[in-house]
Amino acid sequence: MWSHTTNPSGAGTTTARIEWPMNDHGAMTVRVEASSEVRQLVEYESDAVRRTLARLPTGATVPLKMESLGSRGNAWRVTELVGVDHTRRTDAPRRDDARRADEERGERERRVEV
């Protein structure tokens, strides 16, 4: 009888290591750490999930949930990046950036006053 060492439904969290980073077509290769199984990630729950994964370098590990796209061979859809808050804007200025902007604005105002 055939058995599968991983959960093909993708119901649980899987820790995966990036083997090949995302290409121009949005596909990337990961290795499931628990089983050494290689998977092709080709679909993502949202653009935010896709962008987050696209920024990860080779060798990075990430906890995620995924489901098999049964009709597409070894293709998988990422349904969740576990522990990642995608509602936080990545383009929002950090506190240090805001402080620097205030300092630069003050410097410009001092130059104008002279």
TrEMBL record:
List where the protein spans the membrane: none
The residue ranges flagged as biased composition, category Polar residues, are 1-16
Boundaries of each DUF7999 domain copy? 11-82
Q: For the region Disordered, what residue ranges are annotated?
A: 1-22, 85-114
Signal peptide positions on this chain: none
* Protein name in the entry: DUF7999 domain-containing protein
* Origin organism lineage: Archaea, Methanobacteriati, Methanobacteriota, Stenosarchaea group, Halobacteria
